[in-house]
Amino acid sequence: MARTSIRTALAGGRILVSDGAWGSYLYAKGLAAGSCPELWCAERPEAVREIAASYVAAGADMIESNSFGGSSIRLAAQALGSRATELNEAAARISREAAGDRAWVIASIGPSGAMLITGEVTEAQLYDSFSQQAEALARGGADALCIETMSDATEAAIAVRAAKAASGLEVLATFTFSRTVQGYYRSMMGLSPEDAAAAALEAGADIIGTNCGNGYAAMVDIVAAMRSAAPGVPILVQANAGLPAMADGLLSYPETPEYVASIVPALLDAGASIIGGCCGTTPAHIAAIRRAVDARAASRGRA
């Protein structure tokens, strides 16, 4: 695949498929609870590469990287802040090797884990940390940067601006919402899907969206709300395989690949441009999404 920009690929109405879960996949491969996932990029790169390659084999058009918690601020909590550049560059390089020319690498940047509202971190510190991470991911071979699982508009905007300035790459920005008792969807910091879309676009995001926190059916309303606020802007949705429950001491996710595929048409009708997965999703889920997306394209003469 000749890697043009993602937005160019979407411009003609093409629907893209992204990858699935990384965290739950790493735990399934033996990552110990409480340990640093990003450290595997240095210590167990083959295991990380296998995850990335499995999603490419399942039909993903884009894959993320094992760098969600890779900001220097977040890594500092595990005494790894000084290795931020090394670990992020390795994360992007591993995904790049797995993707080859078959898929884009949309390298992952998650929240810092520090709270602006309490003064735990300053805006300047956030900007510098996200800039360092973005620069390292670009150097490792990322095609774009996916700022994900955001709940605070200010932190998300800082991350988008830092990523754009430091890398020059396309930037995707996704937010996580929960349903309130009144039936509205809001982020942990009270942000609505419409306000999240506006904040990300004002900061310069190329693609917006939502991830985590909800199963696939719940994402339909969130995507529709974002679409109403941002006509014509590509929207990425990466849902969980349902809400997790404990079974025999392990987390279990209820939504099967077949169920997930059945929701794809509704997500597309709501305005999704890219569909993938978050917690609990597997290569089997991504393969099912791929089939559903291809069936939709065939039915509309875009096979």
Number of strands: 12
Strand content: 15-25%
Termini distance? 16 Å
CATH superfamily (homologous) name:
Homocysteine-binding-like domain
Helical content, roughly?
40-55%
Low-confidence stretches: none
In the sheet with the most strands, the strands line up as 1-12-9-8-5-4-3-2
The ordered H/E elements are: HEHHHEHHEHEHEEEHEHEEEHEH
Query: Given the helix and strand composition, which structural class is it?
Result: alpha/beta
- Average pLDDT works out at 96
For this structure, the CATH topology is: TIM Barrel
Identify the CATH architecture.
Alpha-Beta Barrel
Number of helices: 12
CATH top level is: Alpha Beta
Query: How many structurally independent domains?
Result: 1
Shape: globular
The main pleated sheet reads as: 8 strands, parallel
Rg over CA atoms: 18 Å
Report on the structure:
The chain is of the alpha/beta class and 303 residues long. It has one domain (6-299): TIM Barrel (Alpha-Beta Barrel). It is built from 12 helices and 12 strands. The protein has helices spanning 6-11, 23-28, 40-43, 45-58, 72-76, 84-99, 123-140, 153-167, 193-203, 216-229, 257-270, 283-299, and strands at residues 16-17, 62-63, 104-109, 144-150, 170-175, 178-179, 185-186, 207-211, 235-239, 245-247, 250-252, 274-277. The strands form 3 sheets. It has an 8-stranded parallel beta sheet. β3, α7 (123-140) and β4 (144-150) form a beta-alpha-beta unit. The longest helix is centred in the middle third of the chain and has 18 residues, at 123-140. The protein is globular, with a radius of gyration of 18 Å. The model has no long low-confidence stretch (mean pLDDT 96).
